[in-house]
Amino acid sequence: MDRSLEAIRGQRADAWRKETVPYWRYMGQSGFPGFVALAVMSGLIGYIAFLRRVPPDFPIAEVGAAVLLPFLAWSPLRSYLVSADTVFLMPRESGMRAWLRPAGRAGVMLSGLLLLMVFLAYVPLYRQGTVPAAWPLIALALLPFKAANAWGAWTERRMAWPMAARLFRLLRWAATVLVLAALLSQPLWESAPFGLLAAAALAAAYRLPSKHRFPWERLIEEEWGIRRRWYRFFGTFIDVPVSGDMAVARRSYLTWTAAALKFKRSNAYTFLYAGTLLRTELGGIVLRLTLLGMLTAVLTGRAELLSGWGAVAAGLGFILLTGVQLGALSQAHRHSVWRHVYPLPESQREASLLAVVRWVLAGSSLLVWLSVAATLAPAGKYAQVGAALLAYPVYALLLRPGSFKRKLAKERNGD
After folding, report:
1. Cβ atoms within 10 Å, residue 167
2. Main-chain phi, psi angles of 159, to 5 degrees
3. What is the reported pLDDT for 51?
């Protein structure tokens, strides 16, 4: 058997692909790809309609910088490392560059391809402005910029102190968005030197923190997080194995809502699931989907897509996505032994789980509807606002909880 580092990594990558193939099949059977395709088509239609009547004062460069920033600064790295590797592979640390080389190449190619696609989609909007530089030249300028971000992300992974890594990541993203804004708003002969100066300053600053030669713990933690996110995504469609403990976030700006529950026996499971949602990654997903739904509703509403119905549909689409993600809450604590230790009935657990899903989805729907109403009501689109006020609560309070209740009953009968 070939025990070279490249062969071991290849075996782990193959094992991961074989493990996830069935989950992709279940995801395809759920109709989720069709929903995503419909959402993308709706977004394209709205974008094309917006391009036909871009407001004269629209911040084209600022929007372009904000849209391109994640794809330019994001540098994924799939290492397939596990905790045991700190014992069995650490003696071979000198050869680990060969282990990471395929991952680095794949990460740069993936994020670079996404960056190119998003930039090409942005070009029609860019050409509506002053066009300080030809867009092919800007595309070429983004290539070394992307390479510099990949180098910066790897250097941050090597930093010994997590706080230093977070600080330099924030600085890199801030510098990236400033250089992007300059590239999109100033002539290239002015913005290029600014970008080179920012890169040189960051490169000099990156020499200051102490670094590991090879960041074993950081890469293992990152790999664990990637697997956990994939499992959580697949868990919305089919039962998947639990991959380690759930990551916990403080979110003090939200956890007070769970603390407001009355301290009594009937609220035990409600407090458990509310706290689980608010302090785990699932809560972050719900929060981001809600904010993105609000932003999309405002943008499509201002563009008057389909006379305002586009904003209603966009908001509903994000509410549907939020409802799908909330389905993963049923997997939390499902196999916990403490459920069978404390004298709490199973029916109370399901009722509390349904209540948390219902009211969280209702709150998310309310925020999205307020964005729709604030955008469409001043324009006199009262029928659209009323339709959203009817459709959003029906899904949040009736349709999604009903389907979730049937899912819980099916799981109970299966157990």
Report:
1. 15
2. -65, 140
3. 83
Distances (CA, A) of 413 to 56, 77, 265: 60, 41, 26
Ranges of the chain whose pLDDT falls below 50: 1, 243-245
DSSP 359-374: HHHHHHHHHHHHHHHH
Q: What's the Cα-to-Cα distance from 233 to each of 80, 262, 321, 325, 364, rounded to whole Å?
A: 19, 32, 12, 8, 19
Please give the model's pTM, rounded to 2 decimal places. 0.66
| Amino acid letter, residue 298 | V
Residue 305, both tokens: 């897509």
Nearest CA-CA partner of 292 in 74, 35, 39: 39
pLDDT for 144-174, tens place per residue? 999 999 999 999 999 999 899 999 999 999 9
Which one-letter amino acid corresponds to residue 355? A
What residues contact 165, with CB distance under 8 A and at least 6 apart?
156, 157, 159, 218
Instruction: Please tell me the predicted confidence (pLDDT) of residue 278.
Output: 78
Query: Contact 350/333 with Cβ under 8 angstroms?
Result: no
